Amino acid sequence: MAERKLNSTNYQNQVFLEEKCALNELIHLLSKRWLTEVMFSIEEGNVRFSNIKEDLKYISDNVLADRLKLLEKYKLIVRTEFAKESPTRVEYALTQTGETLSEWLGVLCNFAEKDMDFST
Amino acid sequence: MAERKLNSTNYQNQVFLEEKCALNELIHLLSKRWLTEVMFSIEEGNVRFSNIKEDLKYISDNVLADRLKLLEKYKLIVRTEFAKESPTRVEYALTQTGETLSEWLGVLCNFAEKDMDFST
DNA sequence: ACTTTTGCTAATAAAAAAGTGAGTCATGGC
DNA sequence: GCCATGACTCACTTTTTTATTAGCAAAAGT
To answer: What are the residue boundaries of the HTH hxlR-type domain, all occurrences included (chains A, B) (predicted)?
Structure first.
């Protein structure tokens, strides 16, 4: 969506952390707003751009497009294009890695609900 | 550190997501830069402000102070002040919840290293 | 009396992320 | 020929997050 300044301390600190531990890369990815919800939405059967958009009612087109690209880039989803149809239909599906991640996020969600107190 | 604009779409979307699922709150917390590393550092025995600062060499004072406050707020760490000493010594320790979270993050870290490919 | 130490805070600037609104492209039906 | 549809893309603005720099308080050492 936008480019990062490679010589900023901000960027260099991020690189430092990501090199220290892959968890930082994963969290950085997961923290992109709507990203996990897009995954879950696909998992629940909203496999087309317009379906997801409808499901996550406040997401905007460009953010959804970006999140789909990220998920595809990191092989958490796969994109299938039906070019013969018109307008071209595109469908998304979770990969095996995506399914596994989704399960771990489920566990984490459970932890968040049971053990954490976000009420304040 | 700074205040959020309560009437912005940005904020309202965040609220929408956090109300939808506590996982979004947890991820939002975990995504604050250095936060998990501060936890891990404390866990490894760097229990004082200056120890952590030394361990995470590029973290700045105000960010560290903020992250410690957040961790304390969400009861992932406890702060103990030794006021009789001078200058006042302060020590941090993980709570039970903190320990549990740390374990789950370990699992996630393992997933990130084994199943994800961040090389591109 | 002055300096040092520890554990911070506050103001501001820089960078990154998210949101807004419009536009594109290749069909295919009217 | 004109409009609609689906899945996006682009330029720009706003909001949020991070980093930079400076400073503070209380007691103890010199």
So the answer is: 21-120
